[in-house]
Sequence to fold (200 residues):
Amino acid sequence: MTSSLPAVLVIDEDRIRASIIEAGLREAGHEQVTLIHTMSGIARRIAEINPDVIIIDLGNPDRDMLENMFQLSRAVKRPVAMFVDSADRLSIQSAVEAGVSAYVVDGLRRERVKPILDMAVSRFEAYSRLVRELEEARGELEKRKLIERAKRILMKSRGLSEEDAYALLRKTAMNQNCKIADIAQSLVTAAGLLDPDVKP
Fold:
C-alpha cells in the first residue's frame, strides 16, 4: 500500500546530515524519501523524481550557492524547506522573496524534521492560495477595464448611453455564447485596427 504522506526529496551534499533528515522522515512514517548528494544537474533530477516536497540542507553556503538555491525554489513551485547553519538578514529576506516555505537556521535535528516539513507544506499551500486569489483579482480588474473601454468605444461610435452600451455587449455575448470580456476584447482590438489612436 502506497503511503499517503508526501514524497520527499532531500538534497544534501553531506551524507551524515542527509541521514539525520532521512531518519526523521522515516520515523514520522514517510516511505517515499529520495536522497541526492550532489548539486550537479539538480533541476533535471527534480523534474525526473517529481517530489511533493523538497528539503535542502546547505550547511554554510556561500552567497552564490544561496542565490542558486533561491532561484531553484522559485522554479520548482512546490514546498521547499531549507536548512542552513547560519544566516544574515539579507539571506533570510531573499529566502522569503524566493518563496522558500521554511528557512531554518541552525535547527537540523532529527525530531524537528517532521514538524518543519509540515509547516513548509502548510505555508506553501497558504502562499499558493494567496497568489491564486491575487491573480484572479487582477484578472477580474483587467476584464472590467476592458469592458469599460469597449463601452466607451460604443458610446462614442454609436451614440449610446453607458447603460445601452453595456446592454449591447451583454446581448452580443449571449447571442455568441461567450463572455462579455471576450466580446469587449474583440471590439477593442477591431477599434485599434481601424483607429491607431485606440489602444488595443
In short: Helices lie at 15-27, 42-49, 63-76, 89-97, 110-158, 162-175, 180-194. The CA atoms of residues 27 and 114 lie 9 Å apart. Residues 110-158 form the longest helix (49 residues).
